[in-house]
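Regression test case RT-17, inverse folding.

Input:
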């Protein structure tokens, strides 16, 4: 539904990690699934069957892209409002591969490059980006995991200099980078006693691809959901001192109204307008054609096209 611009209020920074979007990049078995499992109120899209050692998690297996689209439709419903704060894609690289398969199946080809004129690449990129963006627009936080790619970029004092970046397809990484609030690289070190310690690196360096939207976020944070949440809280407090408006409350999710309600309102508006003046039918259909890009009957509009149907209803109210 459109926002009444007369009632629009200035944006407020939320100190909670809920609603934030994070990419975690690290070596296999370093703790990416552990992070997802210990993050509160998180629905995990398990794309690699990696939760046999993590009891008590809200996990659904994902074997095809349409699974993700189906769960997205469920998460729009009122009855799920407040049940989950985050959705985890473990791993997002497998989700990218499934999205590629989805677009290939739509066109009846085996490889994305077989779709003429490069149209397959654009269709895949748009489908992937728009689906992830849909979760964000519903105010769900996203936790995306991937492996790390290490490359030797030089030597110093006879020691190799290793660069690390998220191991994502060259078309996938820019999409993910544009959506996330934090790219965190997981680093493992050992102290003098041989004890392992894990850290989350959040600042870019000449050899590390990382970063965040908060200028004051610590560049090196102990590994764990709560530690990042605390660090973001400190970074936001620094923003508050600079004049930003801050809240500790979790933002309320905007959930689409039931599709049946939209259909009923559309039917009532159509009946009322046409009874008042038969010429209104032609006006409505012109608006429908402009919104959908082609003629379509109101009775043919599907639940996946609810946002477009809402625009049609606004046009009918204007009539």
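Golden output:
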């Amino acid at each position: 539904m459109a926002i009444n611009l007369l009632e629009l209020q200035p944006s407020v920074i939320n100190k909670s990690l809920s609603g934030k979007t994070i990419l975690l990049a690290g070596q296999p078995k370093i703790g990416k699934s552990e992070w997802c499992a210990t993050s509160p109120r998180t629905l995990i899209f398990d794309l690699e069957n990696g939760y046999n050692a993590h009891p008590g998690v809200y996990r659904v297996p994902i074997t095809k892209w349409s699974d993700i689209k189906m769960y997205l439709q469920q998460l729009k419903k009122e009855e799920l409002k407040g049940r989950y704060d985050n959705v985890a894609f473990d791993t997002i690289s497998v989700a990218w591969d499934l999205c590629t398969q989805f677009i290939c199946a739509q066109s009846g080809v085996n490889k994305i490059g077989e779709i003429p004129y490069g149209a397959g690449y654009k269709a895949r990129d748009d489908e992937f980006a728009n689906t992830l963006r849909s979760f964000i627009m519903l105010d769900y936080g996203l936790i995306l995991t991937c492996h790390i790619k290490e490359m030797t970029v030089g030597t110093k004092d006879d020691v190799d200099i290793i660069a690390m970046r998220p191991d994502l397809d060259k078309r996938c990484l820019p999409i993910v980078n544009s959506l996330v609030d934090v790219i965190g690289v997981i680093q493992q070190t050992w102290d003098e006693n041989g004890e392992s310690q894990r850290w989350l690196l959040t600042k870019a360096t000449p050899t590390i691809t990382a970063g965040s939207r908060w200028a004051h976020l610590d560049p090196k944070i102990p590994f764990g959901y709560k530690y990042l949440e605390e660090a973001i809280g400190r970074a936001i407090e620094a923003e508050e001192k600079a004049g930003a408006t801050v809240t500790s409350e979790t933002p309320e999710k905007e959930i689409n109204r039931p599709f049946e309600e939209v259909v009923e309102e559309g039917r009532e508006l159509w009946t009322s307008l046409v009874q008042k003046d038969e010429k209104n039918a032609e006006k409505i259909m012109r608006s429908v054609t402009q919104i959908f890009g082609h003629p379509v009957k109101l009775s043919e509009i599907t639940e996946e096209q609810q946002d477009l149907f809402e625009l049609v209803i606004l046009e009918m109210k204007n009539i």
